[in-house]
Amino acid sequence: MRPTLLLAALPALLVAQETTTTLKDQKALAVTIYNDNLALVKDLRAVRLSRGEARLAFQEVSAQIRPETALLRDLTHPRGFWVSEQNFDFDLLTPQKLLDKYVGEKVLVVRSAPNADGAGTKEVREEATVLATGSGTVLQFADRIETSVPGRLVFPKVPENLRARPTLVISLNSAVDQTQDLELSYLTGGLSWRADYVANLAPDEKTLDLSGWVTLTNQSGAPYPNATLQLVAGDLNRAGERPGRAFAAGAMMDRAKAAAPQLAEESLFEYHLYTLDRPTTLAVNQTKQVALLSASSVPVRKEYLLQGQSYYYSGSYGDPGQKQKVGVFVAFDNRESARLGMPLPRGIIRVYKRDSEGRAQFVGEDNVDHTPKNELVRLKLGEAFDVTAKRRQTDYKSLGRQGKFGSVHESAFEIELKNAKQEPVTVGVLEPMPGDWEVLQSSQPYTKEAAGAARFKVTVPAGDSAILTYRVRVRW
Predict the structure, then answer these.
(1) Scanning 36, 42, 118, 449, which has the fewest C-beta atoms within 10 Å of its C-beta?
(2) Maximum CA pair distance of the chain?
(3) pTM of the prediction?
């Protein structure tokens, strides 16, 4: 049986002359969260300091603080104020940790024993030395050693380096004896954010309604009450990563109830900064969502794409017909004229469409990178069911060497596109072509999409099929 632990005389048993500050002293709090599990915390507190050298225990900081980034400033009397040393105490007080710290030390064992007359019990106190705590508690009494101790243990004090909560202990010098505004700023892990978007396609698939949410997660081991919250979108360079301690994710979801965007956006260096228009609280192990944007009737284009491969043009293939998938995409412009026109942080856009009964159905999702305004957003939602393709190589010739080219190939292809829908569709056929290439003939016009790609556009009638044929010569 594990003994019950009694913490005796907890107050005032840490280092003498140590001043402690907690969240009760907090005057302001600002948190800036970056994309990559990194946040900047600025914690302003009113603290009474004595003149001269002192030790300040700054409690309730993040458990994943990066102590080397901590900076304490005196905003009231900066002259004559300096910091000479700081220590981060993250070994937190628990009954087991307290017992572990007392290995080799004496404790008081309190147990109940029957009275001599057999009526009732009395309290018996004995002093013992803690020998080990690894696989169980081992205590040495004056006349015996015991491994199972009924009762409770009483400790004379809490060890100096064992704290009830994460604490930054700072040795400093104050020029005055009075209450002063001290601001502690530091970088920490355990705070992260991401953008999530929901798009609802109109019945005719010509427009969509787009809403965006910012999802905040606090696994830093500290609360941030009534904080000014800012988010930075962009890819910061980090000089090496330091592994942090992991904490279990909280299960609570606090969804903000706001119909309009609550995050004001501005440029910051080469990034974008979003500022929440009101203070918010990030509780420990909490996920919170706040509104980012809302846009309705955004013009959207639906695209079908058949994607080829560059290796098609370097050899002969005997497959009489290769079935291929046709991808389905939706695209829209992030412009003010399209009822958008704001920087979109990286995230996932999930797309829904209502069925004939008016029930919203999930039709696909895709990742979107950081997207500035006036850029195209293009999402792959899946593969078409009613639009299919079959590719067949109809001819191949190896033409050997020609001038400066060591290898010349000529290939002909036939692509059959079928459409089982009740309306016609246009399928884009994108063919990556290696080396120095030339389309010798084709049944459909094409555009040179890039130095190594040709794009055909094929209209396929409703309930019918269309054939694309072309011959290409490649040299390398």
Answers:
(1) 118
(2) 117
(3) 0.72
